[in-house]
Design goal:
The chain is mostly beta strands. The chain is about 0% helix and about 35% strand. It has strands at about 1-5, 10, 15, 20, 25, 30-35, 40, 45, 50. The strands form three sheets. Strands 1-4-7 form a three-stranded parallel β-sheet, with no helix packed on it. The radius of gyration is 10 Å and the shape is globular.
């Protein structure tokens, strides 16, 4: 999996090493993304937010 080169990730976001972040996603500070989660494209997440494991 991995992070698409067009995605913008805040350095304070916590993203599992096996999560997939698609094109043009924006992940802000305080966001926590669990294992095997996929954000397809154009997703905007900000604030204190947790997405658990194995979500699409």
């Amino acid at each position: 999996m991995g992070i698409h080169p067009t995605a913008i990730i805040d350095p304070k976001a916590e993203i599992s090493s096996d999560a997939e972040i698609g094109p043009y996603c924006i992940i802000g500070s305080g966001v926590n993304i669990g294992a095997r989660t996929r954000l397809i494209a154009h997703v905007y997440l900000e604030g204190k937010l947790t997405i658990g494991e194995e979500n699409i």
